Amino acid sequence: MVTGVGALISIAIAEISNKVLSVSLGFASGIMIGISTFSLIPTSLEMGNPYICVAGFIAGALFLFLVDISMPHIHKVETDCKVETERGQFAKMGYFIALGITLHNIPEGIAIGATNEVSRNMGILMALTIGLHNIAEGLCVAMPLCLGKVRKRRVVLITTMTGLSTLLGTWLGMVLGIISPLLIAFFLAFAAGAMIYISSDELIPKSHKTHSEFANVGILAGFIVALLLS
């Protein structure tokens, strides 16, 4: 549920300047790249092997690429409907990030469920830790959706749903008990590939387009926060 808090914070911000936009999008990309670099990929390598990790990473990036080319594209041309075009791009970006965060939250849920089977206290601590950084993830999802003029209720619903995917992972971790480490390793790398694809394809280019210097500040800040959370 705390993922939805990020949506409420985004909705509360009435006007978003180019500088705030660039910092926010850069921060989102820094968080996603940092989580992939410091958490998902190292854990994938630890639980599996380099071949499983590479296979999962490529599969995750390829999956998002196929989603990208299958979605209705916004033609980036200068027209009288430029405002509507920009809104469509932001909305698409928000849906992309939501998908990436959803995929990333499933392995996190598995970690909570598996840890809980070892120790209830450890499981609760793991859940609280993940919950804290899910607020930042909620901001990453909700900000572009708000800029895309998606209805407020829908923004909160979509953002909260990305967090609820953690429950699916937790259920898998608890019900299945011992899950194949290779399978978990694959899906951790899959989530990393998906999030880095989103950052490269959507977030970083857009953040630099609005204000390059503030985009760099956001990327570095997000990366540092991901490092501290990891």
Notes on the protein architecture:
87% of the residues lie in helices and 0% in strands. The longest helix has 37 residues, at 82-118. The protein has a domain at 2-8 and 51-72 and 88-204. Residues 72-83 have low confidence and may be disordered. Helix 3 (50-70) crosses helix 7. The two termini are 21 Å apart. The chain is mainly α and 230 residues long.
List the main descriptive attributes of the protein structure presented here.
230 residues, mainly alpha, 8 helices
Concise account of the structure shown:
By secondary structure, the chain is mostly helical. It has a domain at 2-8 and 51-72 and 88-204.
What is the average of the pLDDT values?
77
SSE pattern, N- to C-terminal: HHHHHHHH
Could you give the distance between the termini? 21 Å
User: How would you classify the helix and strand content by structural class?
Assistant: mainly alpha
Overall helicity: over 70%
Q: Report the uncertain regions.
A: 72-83
Classify the beta-strand content into a percent band.
under 5%
